[in-house]
Amino acid sequence: MNWDEDSAAGPMAADRVVSGTADGDDHAVEAALRPKDLGEFVGQERVREQLDLVLRAARARGATADHVLLSGAPGLGKTTLSMIIAAEMGAPIRITSGPAIQHAGDLAAILSSLTEGEVLFLDEIHRMSRPAEEMLYMAMEDFRVDVVVGKGPGATAIPLELPPFTLVGATTRAGLLPPPLRDRFGFTGHMEFYAPAELQRVIHRSAGLLDVAIDEEGAAEIAGRSRGTPRIANRLLRRVRDYAQVKADGLITREIAARALQVYEVDGRGLDRLDRAVLTALLKLFGGGPVGLSTLAVAVGEERETVEEVAEPFLVREGLLARTPRGRIATPAAWDHLGMVPPQQVTGGAGRAGGAGGGQGGLFTE
Ligand SMILES: Nc1ncnc2c1ncn2[C@@H]1O[C@H](COP(=O)(O)OP(=O)(O)OP(=O)(O)O)[C@@H](O)[C@H]1O
Q1: 126 CB less than 6 Å from ligand 1?
Q2: In the chain, N or C terminus with fewer CB closer than 10 Å?
Q3: Which domains does the chain have, with CATH numbers?
């Protein structure tokens, strides 16, 4: 499990300002901030370019676009891209999600009410029920579903023709999709985390739409703390805007952004209180590891799942923590980030590898 960040929320994990998953507050403003066409969509050059070709070709043929699968972490712009696909095709869009489709009948109802060329956005497609998934195979390939009427031996399947439509499936984990489903998508786009310069552009664009004054350095400061995720960048921008209004003259500069994000406990690299608690325990209590996940979780007073699913993915991605068969270890960058010196260096030992304190491995690994 990697990206369902908020699926296990403990005390430090609840309501994280750096969570990639949308909260109620986000939903309210996101509609206003969504880019409306591919030209406005920042970054993801490869996906954008490929998608542009797919859509242009379909338009030129006067056909419905191929089914599209978008994979990537929460908040990277999958919903936004699906809306852009519909807009570029001049088609309406219907939005639903895997967990909302409990029964095949739910899916049949949606599919049978689609109009020709309509885009169906199915978020979290990996969480759909098995029977619905099987119905989707046929719908995607033949634009047809079999609706089963009745039960037991008397049950009959009534074939139902569907108008051609474009399915846009979104998933945090393309690898979890059954191959028959994956194979039915004509195009798969893997969304990457954004570079700081791209997030800076996202922040400037959003600041313009929200009528917020911000200079280059202010935007760079927020971008550097946004964990490669536009949703987090937009959320931090709103928090910093509040601070700038209340504590300064409204203009977001580097200093204002840094002070504001200190209040929200988001550090210069985007780590929040939970991330730092995990790293600090790893360094201070276990000499940098290796230490077992459960032991580490107890040390920070969180559930094991919270540490594994909420804090670790980002720490690993940032190269601050590594998972090894003997347990979690801190990397040299972790010591640097918290301004600490690994034990070997203090005692004059060789190297400063993440295996510091490795002698404790037998004690703490699982
Ligand atoms: N490339 C981008 N350029 C500008 N803004 C973006 C971009 N990608 C995402 N955003 C902004 O980030 C916010 C979140 O995007 P979106 O809802 O599309 O993410 P998502 O990947 O669908 O997330 P989830 O999987 O949680 O639904 C939106 O407000 C959107 O405006």
Answers
A1: no
A2: C
A3: 44-190 (3.40.50.300), 196-263 (1.10.8.60), 273-345 (1.10.10.10)
